[in-house]
Every structure is written in structure tokens, then in C-alpha cells.
Amino acid sequence: MPPKALEQYKAIFFDVGDTPLTIPAARVIMQQFLAARSLHRGEEQIDELFTEAFRLFYYGKQLDPFDVCTPESDRAFWIKLYHYILQKLGVHEENWTDEQIHQCCHELYDLFTAPEQYALFEDVEESIAVLKSMGFRLGIISNFAPTLKSILEYKGILHHFDPVIVSTEVGLEKPDPAIFRLALKESGLAPEDVLYIGDHDRNDIWAPNQAGIDAVKIKRYDYHSGEGILSLRELWQERSDRSHEEAAGG
What we know:
The chain is of the alpha/beta class. It has 10 helices and 7 strands.
């Protein structure tokens, strides 16, 4: 839960991946994509490799805070991750050339940054509505491809967020605290006015803390460790229930 009472904040800003949004059938999408290219592997194996790759490349990633984030650097990161998965799936045993593997990784990047692949977690629309009804300003600070705004628009929620800070648009990337300071500047808010929600210990807890912003970890999956909330509802449920009780008693 937040370090202080929710009503002491003016705004709640969010990470995107595995916070409001996910690709629910990533392993199925990849399995079908590869099967269409005559590489047949089981869903379970692909799912295990996705988890392994995310742990290795994303959750274990140590960024140089002075690196400039660009659309090209974002693509390069994910291509490296997809290349790892393909290698583990044994593409060389299927006589794929390096050129074929490289092309496949680029196609996977385009596939997994397309709006059609994404879904909102089941608690998101309700939580947006409740938090806005409570008077909170909502924003986004995310390491993401340049397609993020089109994804949020496709899901019908872009208009709820201001600002929307996307790493590949602003040239800054978490865990650089500068991306959080930029969000504060654009929103006109002080650090103590903002609560940040995300799933990554360094990017979404440590980094905003360096900019003076309180943060709460959301744990969407079993491999998310440490303290945190399991649903966005935990942010507002207790206060909402208390307000209803006060209204009924008053």
C-alpha cells in the first residue's frame, strides 16, 4: 500500500506493461507465428522461455542511466530478447540462417507492438473510473515502443491520462529518474503530489523514489516478488468502502 493515505496525493501515474496492459496470449501468438514458418513448438515450452527471457533481459536488466532511449534502441532490446528465445527453441537445428532469424525477430517486434495484441487487466477500467471520481489526475510514464499511444487509444483509455510520457518519444528511459522529473514538469505537480504504480523494482520503485515520488509495486504474476499489491483495486477499495459506510451512517 502507499506510504501515506491515498487522499494525500493529487495524481496517480502508471507504468504500462503488466500494470494496466498485457498481451494475454503471447505464447499462442508466437507459437502460431512460428508454426506458419514451419517451426513447431509447444505452448508450454514457449511460455517457459518467455518467462526466462523476461527475467534475464527485463527484470534483471541494468540500464546505464545516461543511455539515450530511441525507437531504434527499444527495437534492438526486444530483438535481442526474441533472438534468445528462438535460439533456445533450436532454430539452428531447423537450419534457419542468421538472416532468417534476424528477420523473424523484427517481425515479432512489429507483431508484439501492434495494438490488436493487447488487453486490459480486468481491474483497470473500474479502477480508472473510481480513481477519477475521487478527483485524482492520472498519467503514464512508460518504457515503450512509439506505438504506445495508439495502443492506449485502441483500448479506449488514452484520454484518461495526462501526461503520457513514452521513453522512445522523450529520449529518456527508466530507471533514469529524469523521466519522472520530466513528467512532474509537464504536469505541474510536485513530487509529493504523485503516487506511481509499476511492476519493476528498479524502474518503477527505485527510480521514482530518486525523484521524490512515492511508488507501489503491482504484482501481476507469480514471479513478481517482494511487497506490493495484487490488484489496482487495493489502492482504492478500502477508502471507497469506508466512504460508503460513512454515507450510510450519516
